[in-house]
Design a protein that fits this description.
The chain is of the alpha/beta class. Helices cover about 40% and strands about 10% of the residues.
Length: about 375
């Protein structure tokens, strides 16, 4: 029996159980993957200060994100194609998040639809929006999120065009996989995954197929999607979406202080410091290195969250200590989902929570809301001394 003690254990099991194209889709970045690697590696440059002889009873990791109570400062990030990592993957992940007491964010490019997730859960979830050129579709999509009871709209700003991910091109990424010889050989060794997919009707992008005219099969879907990402998305369009959505608004994809200043004036409730997990502009600063300057630029006008690179509870602790009011995990929970389904997502959350709780205690704190930069040893010039 495999002992699952860390997120890396889930990743190794995930790699064995999920088809190669979907493992590579998750575990890769754009171009040379420099930013993808540095998102995680840069956390290791920050050290923790251990304190002793402190009362560590009655500890709590409970806090809030955009006014919502959370069991720890972690949300499940929006991840496209989650339902290809495991059958009905978005539903399973949302259920695990609900049980644990953290937010789940559904991607526009999900396999399970907004309505699917709402039907199979009772806790409100967040919805991530990609802005498409079809304004009627966008308006209807926002309306569907509202009707489903979504409590926050997460507007992604860094994917007007798609960064090139070499592995996806080489693998011929598609949902579902195309019946090529190599794919069939690969799927034959992934019997758990294949049996799950045979048992579900959800194999296509549920938020698009059936909701867009003349999009009713994979070929027409990919053709529509390829020309729909809105190249003209600007701050004026962000303002229009703010008018369409009267709930909490989170702007995801901020990686520069100047953009943080503009975002703070949009009426948004939070921004997410993110480089899309290293999947867009390769060579961009890692999220954790970008965080301090963005915090300074945003001030106290809105919450600042962090996404990209979180793989452990210590990463969460470091981000919060630096000033982030929340964090998002994507790959870490996908590893669990692909490895063990809903139970794997729950296990990923348990691992991160335990690491967060114990590390916070070793640093001399009992309440996550009291943690600050005093627990960190940050190298001089960590955020850069650029010309």
């Amino acid at each position: 029996m495999t002992v699952i003690a860390e997120i890396g254990d889930l990743r190794r099991l995930y790699r064995r159980r999920v088809p190669k194209m979907f493992y590579d889709y998750c575990e890769s970045g754009s171009w040379s993957e420099q930013t993808f690697r540095e998102n995680t590696a840069d956390f290791a440059d920050i050290h923790l200060r251990q304190r002793v002889a402190v009362d560590l009873s009655a500890r709590s990791t409970k806090t809030t994100m955009i006014g919502q109570d959370v069991a720890m400062p972690v949300a499940l990030a929006p991840v496209g194609l989650t339902g290809m990592q495991a059958a009905d993957g978005e539903i399973k992940a949302a259920r695990a998040a609900q049980k644990f007491g953290v937010p789940f964010t559904l991607s526009t490019m999900s396999i399970c639809s907004i309505e699917d997730v709402a039907e199979h859960t009772t806790a409100p979830f967040w919805f991530q929006l990609y802005v498409m050129r079809d304004e009627d579709y966008v308006r209807r999509l926002i309306g569907r999120a509202r009707d489903a009871g979504c409590t926050a709209l997460v507007l992604t700003l860094d994917l007007q065009i798609l960064g090139q991910r070499h592995k996806d091109l080489k693998n011929g990424l598609s949902a579902p996989p195309k019946p090529t010889l190599m794919n069939m050989i690969d799927l034959a060794t992934r019997w758990r995954w294949s049996l799950g997919m045979l048992g579900t009707k959800r194999r296509f992008f549920g938020n698009i197929i059936g909701h867009v005219k003349d999009v009713n099969d994979p070929a027409s879907l990919f053709e529509w999607t390829a020309r729909q990402f809105d190249l003209q998305l600007d701050w004026k369009k962000v303002a229009k979406i703010r008018e369409m959505w009267d709930g909490k608004l989170i702007l995801k994809g901020i990686n520069d202080p100047e953009d943080a200043k503009i975002a703070a004036g949009t009426g948004a409730d939070a921004i997410v410091v993110s480089n899309h997990g290293g999947r867009q502009l390769d060579g961009a600063l890692s999220a954790i290195r970008a965080l301090p300057a963005i915090l300074d630029a945003a001030g106290d006008r809105l919450e600042v969250h962090l996404d990209s690179g979180i793989r452990s509870g210590q990463d969460v602790l470091k981000a919060v200590a630096m000033g982030a009011q929340g964090t998002y995990i994507g790959r870490a929970y996908i590893y669990g989902l692909g490895a063990l389904g809903e139970a794997g997502v729950s296990r990923a959350l348990e691992i991160i929570h335990k690491e967060l709780d114990l590390s916070m205690a070793f640093c001399g704190h009992r309440d996550i809301n009291d943690v600050n930069r005093d627990i960190l040893l940050i190298p001089r010039g960590f955020s850069g001394d650029w010309e």
